[in-house]
Protein: Sugar or nucleoside kinase, ribokinase family
Organism: Microbacterium enclense
Amino acid sequence: MPATTTRRVVTAGLHVADVLGRYVDAIPPGQGLALLDEIRLTVAGTAAATAVDLARLGVPVATVGAVGDDALGAFLRSTMAGEGVDIDGLVVRPERPTSATMLPIRRDGSRPALHVIGSNAAIRPDDLASIDFSDVAVLHLGGTCLLPGIDGAPSVELLRRARAAGVVTTMDFIPTGAAADREAVLPCLPYVDYLFPSEEDALSFAGATTLSEAITFYLAAGVSTLVITRGAAGVSVSTRAGRDMRLPAYAVDVVDTTGCGDAFSAGFIWGLVDGLSTAECAERGLACGSLVATGLGSDAGLYSAADVVRLRAEGVRGAF
């Protein structure tokens, strides 16, 4: 089921190297040793992982961001290029190390994160200004609040320019709890066609205790379509014309939830590129996110559009 257009997607924002280990029941005291089943190094981040998933789904995709001049940066660039992602906009900034995260995976698939912002702080406004929107169908801005070089006015201008060029805009953000989060996110929202927060992030940023309160907050802030990912509970889709349409996830054996949100974004954007309805875009996203939960890391479980077709045909709907 390849994309039906040659127009491409551009992802901009977070590029991270993840080091994941499973399963971690406890950190040994002192210099103790714990034996794990598996350790992996993967491409991650709300721009990078989404781009890799899109490439695997057959969607032409380019990415914009920054890595360091180090082994992890070389890994991200070579791996993404090998997946078919156009990395011309993924620049090398020697002044900072490549962004990285250590993820000890628990047996229930959850994971704490130990993170170095590194090169993601080195993305500059001119990196965004160089994006040519003439052949772009969708722009995905991923990682707002963790992009100090472009948070705020540069991101607003990027989204505004994309909208003016007739490009569909999508966005995901990662609130840190700092006061600067609101300055980074709120001015962007009137220029966002589809916003993809997780339920936890959606509630915390909005200061809401219920989904209904959060939906009201984001729609009032200017978002055209709010798509809240809810993990095992599926997804909630809201517009001004209709609030809180809920779709269930697929019942799968969860190994690790890392990258499920990014896979959802990729599946949804794939649907947008193919001109599908919002509900059908969300269905594709749910299938992609559920597949990634079945393996370790952001690149697990989802290898081609055929995987999505198979899960949708054979999968069981409901909490995983």
